[in-house]
Amino acid sequence: MPRYSPRFGMRLSRACVKRTTSVTGTLNTIYVYHSIKTICFNTINKFCFREMDLLMMPSNCGTLRLVQWPLFLLTSKIMLANDYASDCKDSQKELWHRISKDEYMAYAVKECYYSAERILKSIVDGEGKLWVDRLFQYLNESIGRDSLLVTINLKKLQLVQSRLTGLTGLLIRDETADRKAGVTKALRELYEVVTHEFLAPNLREEFDTWQLLLRARNDGRLFSNILWPNDLEMKEQVKRLHLLLTVKDSAANIPKNLEAQRRLQFFTNSLFMDMPEAKPVSEMIPFCVFTPYYSETVLYSMSELCVDNEDGISILFYLQKIFPDEWANFLERIGRGESSEEDFKESPSDTLELRFWVSYRGQTLARTVRGMMYYRRALMLQSYLEKRYLGGIEDGYSALEYIDTQGYQLSPDARAQADLKFTYVVSCQIYGQQKQRKAPEAADIALLLQRNEALRVAFIHEEDGVSSDGQAIKEYHSKLVKADIHGKDQEIYSIKLPGNPKLGEGKPENQNHAIIFTRGDAIQTIDMNQDNYLEEAMKVRNLLEEFRGNHGIRYPTILGVREHVFTGRLFFDYSVILPTIDMFCIFSVSTCSILFCYSVSSLASFMSKQETSFVTLGQRVLAYLKVRMHYGHPDVFDRIFHITRGGISKASRVINISEDIYAGFNSTLRQGNITHHEYIQVGKGRDVGLNQIALFEGKVAGGNGEQVLSRDVYRLGQLFDFFRMLTFFYTTVGYYVCTMMTVLTVYIFLYGRVYLALSGLDHSISRQARFLGNTALDAALNAQFLVQIGVFTAVPMIMGFILELGLMKAIFSFITMQLQFCSVFFTFSLGTRTHYFGRTILHGGAKYRATGRGFVVRHIKFADNYRLYSRSHFVKALEVALLLIVYIAYGYTKGGSSSFILLTISSWIMVISWLFAPYIFNPSGFEWQKTVEDFDDWTNWLFYKGGVGVKGENSWESWWEEEQAHIQTFRGRILETILSLRFLLFQYGIVYKLKITAHNTSLAMYGFSWIVLLVMVLLFKLFTATPRKSTALPIFIRFLQGLLAIGIIAAIACLIGFTDFTIADLFASALAFLATGWCILCLAITWKRVVKTLGLWDSVREISRMYDAGMGAVIFAPIVFFSWFPFVSTFQSRILFNQAFSRGLEISLILAGNKANQES
Question: Of 14, 460, 545, 565, which has fewest CB within 10 angstroms of its CB?
């Protein structure tokens, strides 16, 4: 996408002519003028009033003798032209030639001249009007004779400009007696400057000797009667002239808001894309927008906005710092200066506006409803303009009147036409229950119904009934309501259901019960964290015409739409901060959805860029290859096709956890056709915390694991041709299979190297290969991974950069991301996908994982991260680290340590990424006070006893029990047992490497090591015995524990002093027994019932607690070390929020908290 630049103005004007034929059916550039005009009002908090005036497309319907351009293209041109004139020493032609090199400067000069002439003639009469007429007559004659430089003094042009600026500054305001007097004074000052300084001496003398003018001056009648410009056209010209004379901003900086620039840029570029002709509103395809909602935030309350978190940061404070320009524009719009929360509470209307302002910047239902209702506004505006244009002058409208949009929302014809073609249904599954318990969500939904008369809400209504045999039963009804004229819910339809409709997954069931209430031939599925824009809604008719277009041998059944992720800089959860991606698609007409990402968080930037590459480059290619599925909202479905072929949502529990993509499967299997279109975009919110990313990717990976078992994937694999089958495989389950195989390859490689090292074969094979000259075998044994595997997951994103930005910018952007540790994050995400996909393949049972959609940056506690990532990342990373340590201790590499580093560098990067990414990307992760608090919280959680009703977030024991819930089937237990046996390799290999064994390779030595392990377990059991558990002899137990500790230390000292046992052997034995102990724990958990029967479950739990304490200590120690150095925390903040710092945002203030500022 090209950079935002003044050239967009010219491109836009030409696009207006090009695209209006397809938009309105007639060559009417005025229509697009209104499209651009509505953008300004749509984004009213993105622009201030001044920027709206600069960006407004002029009507060009007045009597001015030239084409008027938007003012932002002409800003500062008059000042520059004045400089040219002041320095001019040549002829008039040379001066005009120099000015005309900039076409916008030429337009600005012409408009300034003609506007000044017309305005001056319109506001004065009598002698004053005669002076103005004579003045411009002389100037026009001089211009025609190329003698302007002889007629006027160009050195005084700036003085004339200043007087004219003062005059227009008064005229743009409302008429009062004082202002009329001020205008008279300003005109007389202008007269003096023009007559006595600006004009040549001969003209000056002529005006001074003009008796009629002289008498008027002496009598004080000159310019005494002012005709104030009150008609709309003249007011517009006065305002434009004033802005032309005063605005010095560069066109590239208008508007200043980056989101407004992006939207204008995309809209302008989209006018040059291929899109079908749009039918008139009366002939367009009727459609419905459909949104499922459960219990997410509808509208933020004032208490939610003002409450501080532990760092003293409220949502309102956060948004004021993240969006300073939009906050200032908001205050300007409601007519307030700097206001506090208490000031807003004094005005209910302003309080409500504030709540909506905040909610429109979050992932709320209010934002989604506002965005989708823009479809209705767009259709109303289009219908209104079509009727006026077709009627035009014949209906008595003037040229300016028939394009005036004032009151279009009140037009009965326009409203009726829009309501015939558009319906919006929000399926609020538990709205009835929320109303019964008077939940705030119900009141907020009712408020949305009142503010949007075309909005409909569907919900499940439960009531008590009596069966035919007199028994009490629950009756379920699916109901559709709207707001009546009094703002109360008015029931439209009520359908009795045969039973509880929630049989499978919640979200698809929510959609299925309400789809009967949709209308039209098309249905757009919109999630409740999406947004829309009025300028994009203007193109919905073009999009719907794709259903009638030629896209192969079959008409489209799903239209894919591009997404824009808007949560990169904007939305942070109270408990987490970083973003996620959505990797799924469905079968429908693809639309382009845009992900809002103005990166406060560098990680948010990574994910939005990766997501953008998928919804643009990725889906574009998939649609061309006819293997694009439905990956989630906002695709547009052929409603009739899908409701007669199984609907848009499969809802079987577990197997359809990723319900969206099954709609694509279903459509493709039934010979549908899915396309993708990038000339229209829809906003999309994403989860913005690292923990949220893990939860979401876990859900997605688990869903893909379930897809492997589905009949849909099997049938598609059977019916596709070879090339489509391969493409389909890689873009669905194959992506996760390959991801898992990538990680498994690392494990297989390392276990193979460890086996060769412990058996001694690596040295002998390498020596034999060199002796025989077998260089191929030697090279294979010393293969080096120079590229870290996690980087490969970013390849599509890099290709997208190259296509969209060019090679050099793509390289620069990629290097910047590497400096911000993007490889660490991508490698971490690789582990997330591998873990959850592999677990689903082994055990099944994928489940929906709620991620939350909130605001505000907050530090995540160590215990929270440990609970989430312990089994998915930490255990696996420590296993790889153990393999690498054993390999460096006993392995052989040609070239020594340097070869070992090159051979294992990628594996070490993976270990570090999996262990420390949650803390690297954790705000204030290395701040000393936070570290101390985290340690206290961690120890309290670790040693808190579980029990009935105690959640895993409060107790290690409860969390440990929850972590075993996935092992349910006998097949899963067998597979877990097989996989757990790999840990026995360490003890078996290391025992024979100990010096104390004296190269004895008998099995007796291995058996003796098990005896030692058993003794260690018994000693641990005795050490963990407490007086609470042994109330009979507590003092004796403590005494015995002390003696045992002294005895163990003495025994180890004797072994080292009097035998061949060394300290290195001691550490090697510890590594071996750690791995074997973990194997025993895994087996005990797998066969939990057997272990409980044997009465060993309590011991297993205590040993597991010891392992988790040890793993936590290994991870926590580096964090404590780096927390000692204050500069590390500063450096981390710079990495996390680099782009925010570059834009001058006050992240440091947010992270530090607002309490200190309030106190000071």
Answer: 14
